[in-house]
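A common beginner's mistake is to predict each chain separately and then try to dock the pieces by hand. The better habit, illustrated here, is to supply every component at once so that their relative placement is modeled jointly.
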Amino acid sequence: MNLYEFEGKKIFETYGIQVPRGVVVRRGENYGDAYQQLDVKEVVVKAQTLSGKRGKSGGITFASSKEETEVCCEKLFNTDIRGQYIAAIRIEEKLVIAEEHYLSITYDTNKRRPVLIYSAQGGMDIEDVPEEKIVKQWIDIRSESVGSDIPFANELWQVFLKEDTRLVEINPLVKTVDGVWIAADAKIAIDDDAFFRHEEWKTFEPRSMMGRLPTERENQAKKIDEGEAYYRGTAGKYIEMDGDIALILNGGGASIANMDALIQLGLKPANYTEYSGNPPREKVRALTEVVLSKPGIRGLWMCGVVANFTNMKETFLGVIDVLDELKPTYPIVVRRDGPESAEAIRLVRECAARNHLNLKIFNKDVSMTESAHVLANMVR
Amino acid sequence: MSILLQENTKVLIQGMTGKEGQKAARAMIEYGTSVLCGVTPGKGGQEVETKPVFNSVKEAFAQFPEISVSVIYVPPFAAKAAVLEAIEAGVALINIFVERMPIQDTAYCLAAARERNIRILGPSSLGCMVPGVARIGVIGGPKQQADQIFQSGSVGIISRSGGMTNELSWQIRNAGMGQSTAVHVGGDLLVGTTYADLLRLFEKDDQTKAVIIFGEHGGSYEFEIVELIERGEFTKPLAMYIGGKFANSLPEGVNIGHAGAIVERGKGAREKEQALSRVGVMIAERYEDLATCIQTYV
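With all components supplied together, the output reads:
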């Protein structure tokens, strides 16, 4: 999960990384009061979005009075920053900048260890900085500190480790005309899988990388994999989309391949969803409820591989529970195989018969892509 | 020959008394893999599938010094400690089945394993299969199903996805061919064994005549293949399918699919296809076409 700049800066402060003094305002709050509270003349008004490139999209503006700040905030909350949702605005003191540097720590997946990346040329995308101007230092994950003269390198390493992040970035890392180092921006991506040792993460507001607030269905789906049995099968993945073909896919890999296949046929997904591992019936039922609750569905595609160890009967019973209740009239195509598939397919056929569903079900003799064609013909 | 597993592979299961651990024990034993024992702290003295359970890896080794593989079936919060125990004992190959292991814990285990020259397969890996010889983990599912999908042959299979490891193996079998070794490397951002690592092994393996790979958008492991081929370290026919073409229309940073499948500039499915295609890798538009791509070479 990506953090907003203001959340990142709060964390930086607790590790001794200096950040500009600032105040966070939400939509509709008194922006002028916030300006006065800050008690400086020149301020930067920064939109809080999850994606970068704010600067280039008009997400960062400047003001030097209460009135100007009010106008800036009003305008900023109504600016389209590449379709990103603006959760808040951070009003902060404007720094008198002498130099802009770049500093980050992330995982180098090829070397399979963390890498510290530094450049004296900051303030722009690191991808746009020439390779020879970039310093890279690979770090043993087991080291408690990094031997480095780069300002805040050690502090940032502590953030990286103790906050269980996948990425920490300061860009720009500013040196003021007074020679003081300040993190003018903060980008942190936390590792969701480490949630069990971070009670404090529960207080983060809900968010979506899709550039909007998470939908009600997305929030509902997310809850499915919470609680003690969170690792027993994954069934909480749901991204709402604009199309009208409801999807219940299986497996992280097959699901994206099947999204490609569906879209190539000109069909539009109503959602991205997959369950994998061996989730219990209840989890699959809850997920199916979310997927089928979307209005305007014209078809349902349940498609997965020949499972290794997902119990087909147990998981399909979760789907059958919902089909029995809703009795949808749109076409349904199922393709799946795996442990207990014969019994699972029999149960689905019985469910289709008693509810008069327009349903076709296939095992591994029909490939996943072929089953997409079947659905395409049925919905046209 | 095959890669990773041989007939004399001897397996320890950490977390054998849990639900998935028991299932893995059954799956391996029924396929003929030599499972020696299991470990679950506090449950020493019990038995699973008539195999003894010990309190620690050290105790297990005292009894069975010939253990060559450990498979890890513990909850994610216990994974790091379990893997480090196996590393400490010097097991040559560790297969981490665990999903949702924190990336920092993975990195820690990989660093410790590297020092001891120990291979880690996973995390989030269902294991690997050498048809007719042995399997570690649950690749293929129940034996009856595994026997329908797998038969010994000359196609090497690598996949980021466990399901697709099975599905591709089935497509190969359905087209009348067989597999040398099928390996699920796992879909995490950091994995212990990558495509490139396995291609080096397949290059040396006489049984393997061609390799097929299921790759996906996000991360950069596919680009390692490009470099490997450029350096001449892999020369056999290779066909790949890269999933996640639709993801290029999503905002950067969106995670869709496996944990490692994050939308990132320059790391999309099409960009990977182009880079791979330039060094002679056959690119399949549909995953079903992979079998056709390599048919003439085996």
